[in-house]
Amino acid sequence: MAGTSSTARALLPADEAPPTGSLVDVAPHRAHVPLTARVVAVGPDRLVLERPADLLGAASRLVEDEAVDLVWSEAGSVVGVPVLVRDLSDDGWTAVVTGAPQRVQRREAVRAPVDLRGRIGRAADGLGAGQVLEVVVEDLSESGARCLVDPVALRLEQDELVHLDLPLEGLPGPLAARVVHRRYRHGTRATLVGLRFEGTTAADADAVRRHVFARLRELRRRGAL
User: Fold this and answer.
1) Can you say whether residue 203 is alpha, beta or left, with left for phi > 0 and alpha for psi between -120 and 50 degrees?
2) Domain assignment of residue 204, yes or no
3) What DSSP character marks residue 107?
4) pTM of the entire structure?
5) CA angle centred on 76, ends 72 and 79, rounded to 5°
6) Which of 87, 103, 119 marks a domain boundary?
7) Which residues on neighbouring strands pair with residue 80, listed in sequence order?
8) What CATH number did the domain enclosing 87 receive?
């Protein structure tokens, strides 16, 4: 049909687009390595992004007209949108949207072993109220965390809602989370508590993802991965 582009473009609603300045995951269909890129600008049918980087922080090459998926967190959900790579340059590229944004299930968010001192408390007590306990966070991803909790000082029940305060740069405040498992740590008096974050904002996910990727880069440089 005359006047019709060979590439079908789908509008990206402004209220569903990732915020300018946020990090998104870039998933080329030809590879299964975690890449991230920062959003520079957002339009109704495209996004402008910086060049994507891998876990080591090295810039990764894309191919003109390559099909990739962009994935980001929004209000506690994971959103994905298919795009085509256009206008590649040394500074960045344009992602032309080819399908509507959809809530997606990601089997495993990129996670890293960490050694953070956080603070946990029951959500029912409210932030800054009730009993708050210092914990050691051993594992972190944008979808959740695992931490060591003294069950005598603070007994947490399965499916209980809590808030977890982490010392991460750029994290606006404590994260809401739900207890998904509890396992006794042999040889200690601690319980390993698995948490799934709930209601995370784009800023929350961005701060956690930055820390996770920085930690993985550090471990790879040290040969620990």
Assistant:
1) alpha
2) yes
3) S
4) 0.57
5) 30
6) 103
7) 71, 102
8) 2.40.10.220
